[in-house]
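Milestone 3.1: sequence recovery, worked example.
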């Protein structure tokens, strides 16, 4: 696929600056991007002029608060009451709750809520990404699209049941149960360590889906 190289480099630079917040100099950024320093300076000057980055006292590059404007626009695509609903779902099920969306061929965790120490024990956190059709969330999201000729049996089963379920798929000992939100290509659900009361979780998920809609 043909891409605009300058734009691609600029976005990649933003990603690197975010990942190394305050720790990268322009010279180090040039090395990571595999470009000469002159081009790196042009990219950072442009991003600074637009207000998306700044330089700290140690000459490290940092994101500026204007990045929040982009995030705010993105958040408008997510149900406004989703965090409140996830908090309630997590408390009700005593498990980590997540809202996951489709993004290309992947599903991505965009909102989370946890109770107690579950957050530390379950590696399914904000920004986690895995292929659609994999694990409970990916299976649930797959059902929001039309059936495919060679669809996995677990996706066909999820269409019949109305939810995706998996055990130990992304993390050993973790159980996932997610319900699709078809019109948004999203899924909401829980991830827990060990057995779950499926009937109670499904009741809580049904309430959560109705509240999101």
């Amino acid at each position: 696929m043909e891409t605009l190289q300058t734009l691609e480099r600029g976005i990649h630079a933003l990603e690197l600056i975010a990942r190394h917040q305050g720790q990268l100099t322009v010279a180090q950024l040039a090395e990571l991007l595999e470009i000469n320093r002159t081009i790196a300076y042009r990219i950072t000057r442009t991003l600074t002029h637009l207000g998306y980055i700044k330089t700290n006292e140690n000459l490290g590059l940092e994101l500026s608060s204007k990045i929040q404007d982009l995030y705010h626009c993105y958040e408008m695509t997510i149900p406004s009451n989703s965090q409140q609903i996830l908090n309630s779902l997590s408390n009700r099920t005593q498990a980590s709750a997540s809202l996951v969306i489709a993004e290309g061929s992947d599903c991505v965790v965009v909102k989370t809520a946890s109770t107690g120490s579950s957050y530390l024990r379950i590696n399914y956190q904000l920004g986690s990404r895995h292929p659609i059709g994999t694990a409970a969330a990916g299976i649930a999201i797959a059902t929001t699209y039309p059936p495919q000729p060679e669809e996995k049996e677990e996706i066909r089963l999820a269409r019949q049941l109305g939810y995706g379920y998996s055990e130990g798929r992304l993390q050993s000992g973790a159980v996932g149960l997610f319900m699709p939100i078809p019109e948004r290509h999203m899924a909401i659900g829980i991830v827990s360590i060990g057995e779950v009361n499926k009937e109670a979780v499904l009741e809580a998920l049904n309430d959560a889906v109705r509240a999101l809609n």
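The mean pLDDT is 89. Strands lie at 53-55, 61-63, 96-103, 106-113, 129-131, 164-167, 174-181, 186-193.
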